[in-house]
Amino acid sequence: MDLNLSLSDIYHPAIVTYYNYSLLLSFCLTTIILIPAIYVVLTQSKKAQMFKYLLLNQLLWSYLFCAIFVLEGNVPLFPIPGIYFSSIMKWFPEKMNIVLPIHLFISVGHTQSYFLACLYKVSYASAFNKLQFWFEDPRKLEAIVGGLLIIFSTIIVGPFLFYNYDVLQLRQVLLDEYPLLHQLIVHEPSVIASPVMTFPRNCTILTVALTAYGLYIPLTFISGFSIYLIFLRQAFLVKDFMNDKTYHNYLVVVHAKSVQICSVSLFLFIPFLIQFIVFSARLRHASLIALLAHFPASYHLFVEIIALFYFVRPYREFFMKTMGKIRMKVTTKSESESQQMPTLKPTLESS
Asked: 20 to 30 A Cα–Cα from 166, which one of 11, 157, 259, 344?
């Protein structure tokens, strides 16, 4: 297929270099801040036990998503339906047969974690109070989390465990269809067909699985966002049925979920939506736009944790109090060391 492209339209090595630095920085920052975030959630969510478990579930899946994102470092070649790897997977493109099912499984769990958190919120709205049955007991919560994960993973990931997904064969198909890639493969030998944009030939079940994955992510997000909007409307109505203390705890949950919805929308859903749009529009500089959209995606968990600490009052107060204690200890230790230092008395030299 002739798209009238040149190598400079799809290959941007300088920007990819900054992209790799950005991936490494985002993973380091996220790893550093994740541990205190888990501690804060565990210690400051005692009055919202079920939400605490759902939030931890969400944080852990998000971290796994960041890890696989950094592991691959995939660079889109849009409008050509291909990618190449700029990170660790660059040296092991043939291992995509193993990495792809893991990637799909993590994506399913990651998306589901946000959806379940939304369901938990709306279960306390009057229009959805029947959902409380599934969130009032840890065993029921485990059943719904594990059950949904097994169902969707079986549909999307299961076929890849029994059918061979030959990425090298797909790469050859891509090279035959787009001769321009022969120039690129000299510089980037990990060029392969995009699993989401190019379906395997002569294997209907894998095509169905990838199609299901392509539909699962946006539909789950849109449905979760829709019921969350309904929940926001109902949130103002439940105040009359709660005492002040209960309603205060309820608002903490509302703020936490609002922060998460905003962060995942701005740093994940919108960037990936932009990539899909530029690919569908067959824009000449689609690869550059899609690559730039990749930058914020790896920071979504880091931004989400920072936002939780800032906008959710109990988390913010606990974090500031802890930082104050640490600062006080450091200051006290410095003053103590300065007082213990011997003072030098001036002496007069004898002439």
From this structure: 11
| Residue 27, pLDDT above cutoff 70 | yes
Q: How far apart are CA 264 and CA 261, in angstroms?
A: 5
| Token representation of residue 283 | 């824009």
pLDDT in tens, 285-296: 888 998 898 888
The contacts of residue 275 (CB under 8 Å, 6+ apart) are 76, 78, 289, 290, 293, 294
Q: Nearest CA to 25 among 69, 83, 76?
A: 69
* Structure tokens that stand for 37 in this block: 């975030």
Counting Cα atoms < 13 Å in the Cβ hemisphere of 5 gives 26
CA–CA dist 271, 262 (Å, integer): 13
Query: Across the beta sheet with 82-85, what order do the strands follow?
Result: 74-76, 82-85, 192-193
What is the number of H-type helices and E-type strands within the chain? 15, 3
Confidence category of residue 33, pLDDT binned at 50, 70, 90: confident
